Amino acid sequence: xxxxxxxxxxxxxxxxxxxxxxxxxxxxxNDEFDRIVLRSTEQExxxxxxxxxxxxxxxxxxxxxxxxxxxxxxxxxxxxxxxxHIGKSSLxxxxxxxxxxxxxxxxxRIRVDEANxxxxxxxxLLNSEYVKRQFQQLxxxxxxxxxxxxxxxxxxxxxxxxxxxxxxIANYLDKETQRIDALIDAKxxxxxxxxxxxxxMISHAVTKGLNPKAKLKDSGIPWLGEIPVxxxxxxxxxxxxxxxxxxxxxxxELLSVSHITGVTSxxxxxxxxxxxxxxxxxxxxxANELVINTLWAWMGAMGVSPIDGIxxxxxxxxxxxxxxxxxxxxxxxxxxxxxxxxxRYSKGVWSSRLRLYPExxxxxxxxxxxxxxxxxIIAFLKKEQERMATLEVVTQKxxxxxxxxxxxxxxxxxxxxxxxxxx
Length: 423
Known about the structure:
alpha+beta
């Protein structure tokens, strides 16, 4: 690496007094040796720790004394199946030290020589693109895992200004990034509000219609509530006949059913899950048919297919009667309140093992607006969703741009390019 920076470049090891791997211990035993063990899942990309649901492990005192975290230690994720997690770094605060935490064997703990090195400065460096690029280049892969080791971490090249400059840079970046993070947070809140507004808009349109002056009546269905007086209500059993037609050779388009995207072509998704050697015997799906992922219906994994294809034999496929326009039904079944209703009729001992079979779905009643009104609802929702999607894209792009500028600011500051930060 060429030394084009204002500060001298040194190996990280010359700033350290410790560079140690972690421990995992045994299953918790509900005694005084049960300890919180931090993992990469507790690390956020901005260098902070979010200890919400930590892992508890039983660690013998002789082992715990080696991997107990203290203030100003820095944790680095050294092994993970997700490349974006490799090299994630977090500075240990007083609050975390007081929790008597250890750290897992997939992480490395470094401890800097505070006489001539600022732990905060090193933590900032490790979360900068300057160092992240080095981690990416030096990561080894074995059995699907990305790996760093103590030697690689020790030899990371870093700019090292005098101790007083390190403190000035850390203070400068703390002030500047707080301002930037507040702007990012405001934009992310806007995205959340847009998402909530979309859900409320869809729910109101498909259950109350578009006419705010329409007279309402009690539907008699708790989840549905009041509906326009001229709408009907019908049990799904008479609207959604199940059919089970199987593929003879499995050559049709394979479909995926997700709570996020509904029904889409599997080819459009970036998935690495196990694939069957043959798709022969998979269920045929025609465009405009309802497909429900039996295992994940409780999360909302259902929707109307826009294309012909095939789906897993574990899914259920339903034709749609002429009383409902497929696009209208698709909006209806993807509402959270509808998902809650079908979950009531799902079977299973645990919530994460619930299954929605046809007999469960058939207990649910559906609103039946006039066809012309369904068409109006679909046209309205399409227009509004496109408008909101455009706003979301613009907002997300602005967030990405701000984050890029934040990253560039940090790199420039730690390499001495911003004299204001250290002079």
